[in-house]
Specification:
182 residues, Leucine Aminopeptidase, subunit E, domain 1, 7-stranded mixed beta sheet, 5 helices, 38% helix
């Protein structure tokens, strides 16, 4: 695990593994605009947390409409260790601006802070079926964390949970460049 200082009193950690197993007040789901959680991180969250997460997500969309790219929605976390799932919609690479990854990360962390939470865990947004390259996603994620961290009043720990050695290695290299040595 690599750990960095994002701002005074705010740490950012890189972890490798299953985001549904992490100890965090909220976990971020890499979602689509309709909050239909079929595969990838979203599917794993619903399988482990329970169908109520999918049901709450559909109710959110019925009430508010689709979540825009870069936007977030919040549901309960079902049987997960977390209190909330923050659904962040990243871009589909090749058809939507990749810079929206940063917007999704910043909005997700800010929402966790608004909810009064101390910790939030993020996946590598848009790197799965949405096809964004790790290096660019890592840079946009790190820059977004660096932007939002000084404004946080509650969140003290941001965890970026990566699935697999290639993702972890790339994110660790990029985060070291942006935050300095871990």
């Amino acid at each position: 695990m690599d750990r960095f200082q994002a701002a005074p009193g705010v740490s950012v950690e890189l972890a490798m593994g299953d985001i549904t197993e992490l100890e965090a007040d909220a976990i971020v789901n890499a979602a689509n605009s309709y909050l239909e959680h079929g595969g990838g991180v979203a599917g794993a969250i619903v399988r482990k947390g329970g169908r109520e997460i999918q049901e709450e997500s559909r109710e959110w969309v019925r009430r508010h409409g689709p979540v825009p790219v870069g936007g977030v929605a919040v549901t309960g976390a079902g049987r997960l260790k977390a209190k909330y799932v923050i659904h962040a919609v990243g871009p589909r690479c090749g058809s939507e601006p990749i810079e929206k990854i940063g917007e999704a990360v910043e909005n997700a962390v800010a929402k966790a802070d608004e909810l009064g939470l101390k910790s939030v865990a993020l996946p590598a947004i848009s790197t799965g079926i949405f096809g964004c390259p790790y290096r660019e996603a890592a840079r946009l994620t790190a820059e977004a964390v660096k932007r939002v961290a000084p404004r946080l009043r509650n969140v003290r720990r941001i965890i970026v949970c990566l699935y697999g050695e290639e993702a972890y290695g790339t994110y660790a290299e990029v985060f070291r460049q942006i935050f300095g040595t871990g």
